[in-house]
Amino acid sequence: MNRTQKIGLGLAVLAALSYGAYTTGKKDQQTGFATKDSKKAELPEIKGSDDVDKLVLTNADKGEVVLEKKADKWEVTKPIKAPANQANVKSLIDNMKELKVSEQIEANATDETKKSYQLDAAKVVRVAAYKGADKKVDNLFGKSGGRGQVMMVDGKPGVFIASGYSSYLYTREVKNWRDQEMFKFDDANVTQLTIDKKGSVFSFTKADKWAGTFKGTAIADMDEEKVKDAVRAFKSLNADDFGDGKAAADTGLDAPESIVTIALKETTTDAGVTPPQKLTLKVGKTSTGSNRYAQKEGDPTIYIIASFAADWATAELPKFQKAKGDAGAPGKDVAKAPPMGMPMGMPGMPPGMPPGHPSH
């Protein structure tokens, strides 16, 4: 190889190295993650397990949520004491079991580094899991990019890339960590629905079909499908929010706008016989929009129910009647069609005559 060829080969190698550095830099720029400290050695174990009885979650500057397992049920113990949404807690624990570190991108994170990766106190999402006093994991999650989820592990200086993280499972509002279920029943088992609006009472009873009265008088043109809709509004009733600490006078639950009572027949399943039940719901003032405060009989919790159920609880008589003009309903006005050959909307005009032209 002569001198010229050696120089040419050297330039080619240099160009290849420069291009590699450029593309790596571009990739880091696009994902927001540097790779100068990237390595696979000594990666921490961040996977969670089912064997925990306490979870502490911090979502940036939104405060701390503590979930604790008492007997076989999870409870929210901070910032409020309340039964927890068991399914949401299970989803979180299941996701923690999927977490895995793939690489390290910084060996020693500075305050500036943490801020750039959204691992600072104002942005970080943190979850610590315990079994008794033993801390099992303590993971901090920040920015997400094309290569994965940026994270740190408490007690370790490095910044890592992890896979398996689903942020929405960790960043729920407090209300969504709580048990929001109010009623759950099979609408086929309902035998009676009563809506008492301060003495103006709707009473619906089901035999073969639904029948209804309002203030003791049979409802004219009652629409059975609308009664079924009303029952369905309560069959899987969940709270939209909670009114913790509100005075009864503020919620209107000291003098409710409506009291809804649902009677359920006796049922037999593999689990045994469930005797007849009555479910009672007090519905008070509006909270936001058309949502209303509500309270179940025997439960001091102040719930907020969405407008769909609230509107049925405070319905007026026409909401349960057939709409005027319904197909087949008495008194339906059917508009007469224009004579054959006459353009629609042009009464009196000879067939085929274009609008705006007098006949000759």
Shape: elongated
CATH names the topology of the largest domain as Immunoglobulin-like
Discrete helix count: 7
Strand fraction = 25-35%
Helix content: 10-25%
Describe it for me?
With 360 residues, this protein is an alpha+beta fold. The chain has two domains: 54-177, no CATH class; 187-320, Sandwich (Immunoglobulin-like). Helix content is 20%, strand content 31%. The protein is built from seven helices and 20 strands. The protein has helices at 3-31, 86-96, 111-116, 174-177, 224-235, 248-251, 307-313, and strands at 54-59, 64-70, 73-78, 82-83, 100-106, 125-131, 134-145, 148-153, 159-163, 190-197, 200-206, 210-214, 217-218, 241-242, 258-264, 267-269, 272-274, 277-286, 292-296, 303-305. It has a nine-stranded antiparallel β-sheet with strand order 4-3-2-1-6-7-8-9-5, with no helix packed on it. Strand 1 and strand 2 form a beta hairpin. It is elongated and about 105 Å long.
What's this model, at a glance?
It is built from seven helices and 20 strands. It is an alpha+beta fold.
Write the topology of this structure.
Blueprint: H1 3-31, E1 54-59, E2 64-70, E3 73-78, E4 82-83, H2 86-96, E5 100-106, H3 111-116, E6 125-131, E7 134-145, E8 148-153, E9 159-163, H4 174-177, E10 190-197, E11 200-206, E12 210-214, E13 217-218, H5 224-235, E14 241-242, H6 248-251, E15 258-264, E16 267-269, E17 272-274, E18 277-286, E19 292-296, E20 303-305, H7 307-313
Antiparallel strand pairs: 1-2, 1-6, 2-3, 3-4, 5-9, 6-7, 7-8, 8-9, 10-11, 10-15, 11-12, 12-13, 14-20, 15-18, 16-17, 18-19, 19-20
